[in-house]
Design brief:
By secondary structure, this protein is α/β, with parallel strands linked by helices. It is built from eight helices and seven strands; from the N terminus they run H-H-H-H-E-E-E-H-E-E-H-E-H-E-H. It has helices spanning 2-17, 55-61, 63-66, 71-80, 114-124, 161-171, 188-193, 205-221; strands at 92-94, 97-99, 105-108, 129-132, 150-154, 177-180, 197-199. The model is unreliable at 82-98 (pLDDT under 50).
């Protein structure tokens, strides 16, 4: 009895020695976080179209050219870049009263900054000047009582100069019009035959100012 139990116990011990160890359980991986939705970027609003350049902006944009000019020329260009009150139809304030007055000179010249330089020099001489780059000039300066004392017409770069002068002669007294000739447009003799005063090229800004002063002096004396 005792041997069988011992034999049985040894058999149980030998069987338990061949049992493989139980594998340890692997830890479960943590759950992956849910993706966070990203907001879609809003489209950029369309940019407005650029505004046309103003006289001041054009003057600022040509600083590289102006920097090469003399100090006097740069000062004249800065004066010429000031807003032209008459060309915008704004009345002139004199001694606290508001009244519309005709300008001394209307300058018709297609090219800038030549137009700006001439206008600035005329302003330095004390004249009230309206500058424009195309015909017809603003309507308020063609009305009775608002016409300028002098109209300067530069034919350089002016489209259809002969037709322009014919129309000018119908609305302005011809003795109050100073025409500056240009190559390939009209000769000085043709301008004189139309009854206008003439200034021949080549001519400087100072020469044009002196010619304008002479015409205005004659108009005042008459």
């Amino acid at each position: 009895m005792t041997r069988r139990i011992g034999a049985g116990t040894g058999a149980i011990s030998r069987m338990s020695a061949h049992v493989p160890p139980r594998p340890e359980p692997h830890p479960e991986p943590p759950p992956s976080p849910l993706p966070i939705p990203q907001p879609h970027p809003l489209p950029e609003p369309p940019k407005p179209p650029p505004l046309p350049p103003t006289p001041i902006a054009r003057a600022a944009g040509s600083q590289s050219r102006v920097a090469r000019r003399s100090p006097r020329t740069r000062r004249l260009l800065r004066v010429a870049a000031l807003p032209e009150l008459h060309s915008f139809g704004i009345a002139v304030v004199l001694k606290g009263a508001v009244e519309a007055t005709p300008p001394d000179i209307v300058l018709l010249r297609a090219e800038w900054p030549e137009r700006a330089l001439l206008r600035a020099q005329l302003l330095e001489e004390g004249y009230d000047v309206v500058a424009t780059d195309a015909w017809p000039i603003p309507r308020q300066y063609l009305r009775s009582g608002m016409k300028p004392r002098l109209l300067i017409v530069d034919l350089q770069g002016l489209p259809e100069p002969r037709e322009v002068l014919e129309e000018v002669g119908g609305v302005m007294p011809r003795e109050r019009v100073l025409v500056i000739t240009a190559l390939g447009t009209m000769t000085a003799d043709e301008v004189v035959r139309l009854g206008f005063r003439v200034a021949k090229r080549p001519i400087s800004v100072g020469d044009i100012v002196r010619a304008a002063t002479e015409v205005l002096g004659r108009a005042t004396s008459t």
